[in-house]
Design goal:
By secondary structure, the protein is an alpha+beta fold. The chain has a four-stranded antiparallel sheet, with no helix packed on it. It starts with a helix and ends in a 5-residue tail after the last helix. α4 packs parallel to α7.
Length: 453
């Protein structure tokens, strides 16, 4: 009898259990969309900077600011509600498509592309970095301007290394924003922060490659618009260690490609983008789908990740700015023990420390962007590694202080902060964990002293 009742109880739990993903935050409660944010941005933009930004780039940055404040942020809640209403299926929102059309018409599109790319805005890494910061304040905004990962990295790979046929079939629709893409590298069975561990097999079979392997946390693979996947796998286990891996284009509708389910991030599934577990079982693709050539995977990944880490870090700085804005707004309007929170010295110290740390992180990141502009990603390797450690950690501290001032609301879905914390914490792992980048910095430092670690 006890066993039967227990079974009935668990069945009721299963039937009434909530969906796997946590509810999205309510953006309207997180940030009052008004002129104050725009004015704060403007004041920071008017400050002297040691890094060169053209008048044209400054004007574009101001256009993006105004577009965000006037058009994107007021529709955050509507966008989130559409996605929630579409469950259990994952669907994109009409809001997103409307905003993308408006951004494209305003020529605020593909701004991330390298300066030499005719399809982009011809911005330097420094110039785009100042725009990427603003995109970080509103997590839906990168896609609005067709500047969202992983599409940005994939488009850059195809722009730099794709054949004319690959560009025609995949790069052009990605640049138009009519399809999306994913990048499959991370595997559950090995420490994928060391890419030499990747086990997915890309085997030679006449005019084709046959792919077998399992990947997970593949961002973007859950989106119904995702049509192409760049897969990193091993083509020659006997080759020198950094020439074993290759990258190949795999259409998502290829037989043998399956999505086994979503991987959540602190309970969030990030629909309709998502982070998926994928299985490749005897997947056959033409040899024409190889990017650059066999054994060139590491070479491609280094070119892909340099600018991408600038984008991640500047968006994190934007996220921190939004948290700082929320902290100050809350402190000015909340009363405890007969005093506004803003009157307490501990809160003032939090506000000051936030500003100091944000400014430090911004300068370090702009220096890294400037180094890429002058020396390329390889020459800027130490700078890129430093920001990838410093910026996400700074952002987490800023958000944590904002959460503390918001109390229970800070850890709930009532505000933007819990979701922002989950996003920032993920960046300490995505595109290489802290320890890998610290190791890079340490080794470069040692070489400067003619030593080896």
């Amino acid at each position: 009898m006890a066993s039967h009742l227990a079974g009935v109880g668990w069945e009721m739990v299963r039937k009434n259990a909530p969906s796997q993903s946590l509810p999205l935050y309510r953006p309207h409660a997180a940030l009052s969309v008004n002129a104050s944010l725009f004015e704060a941005w403007k004041k920071r933009a008017d400050l002297p900077s040691p890094f060169p930004v053209s008048a044209r780039a400054q004007a574009m940055r101001e256009e993006v600011m105004r577009f965000l404040v006037d058009r994107v942020m007021p529709r955050e809640e509507e966008h989130a509600a559409e996605i929630e209403a579409g469950r259990p299926q994952w669907v994109n929102s009409k809001v997103m498509e409307e905003l993308k059309a408006q951004a494209k018409a305003a020529h605020l599109w593909n701004m991330f592309l390298p300066k030499e790319a005719a399809e982009g805005a011809q911005l330097t890494n420094v110039e785009y970095a100042t725009i990427a910061e603003m995109l970080g304040t509103c997590l839906m905004s990168s896609e609005v301007f067709n500047c969202a990962a992983p599409d940005t990295g994939n488009m850059e790979v195809l722009h730099r290394f794709g054949t004319p046929e690959q560009k025609k079939r995949w790069l052009e629709p990605l640049l138009e924003g009519t399809i999306r893409s994913c990048f499959a590298m991370t595997e559950p069975e090995v420490a994928s922060s060391d890419a030499t561990n990747i086990q997915t097999e890309i085997a030679d079979d006449g005019d084709h490659y046959v792919i077998n392997g399992r990947k997970w946390y593949i961002s973007g693979a859950g989106d119904p618009r995702c049509k192409i996947c760049i897969v990193m796998g091993r083509t020659d286990p006997a080759a020198p260690v950094h020439q074993q891996q290759s990258m190949v284009l795999v259409p998502m509708d290829t037989p043998g490609v399956s999505i086994t389910g979503p991987c959540t991030v602190f309970g969030y599934d990030d629909a309709p983008h998502g982070h998926m577990e994928m299985v490749f079982r005897d997947v056959r693709v033409p040899k024409a789908n190889i990017i650059l050539g066999e054994g060139r995977g590491f070479e491609i990944s280094q070119a892909r990740l340099g600018p991408g880490r600038i984008h991640h870090c500047m968006r994190m700085i934007g996220l921190a700015e939004r948290a700082q804005h929320m902290l100050i707004t809350r402190a000015l309007n909340r009363v405890a023990f007969s005093r506004k929170l803003s009157e307490y010295s501990s809160i003032q110290q939090d506000i000051a420390n936030n500003r100091i740390e944000i400014e430090q992180a911004r300068l370090l990141t702009l220096q890294a962007a400037f180094a890429i502009d002058k020396m390329g990603a390889k020459g800027a390797r130490a700078h890129i590694a430093m920001i990838k450690v410093a910026v996400p950690n700074m952002t987490l501290r800023v958000i944590d202080r904002a959460i503390q001032v918001h109390g229970a609301a800070g850890v709930s879905s009532t505000t933007f902060l819990a979701y922002a914390y989950a996003q920032a914490r993920t960046i300490r792992i995505a595109d290489g964990p802290d320890a890998v980048h610290q190791r890079t910095v340490a080794r470069i430092e040692a070489r400067r002293m003619n030593a080896k670690l």
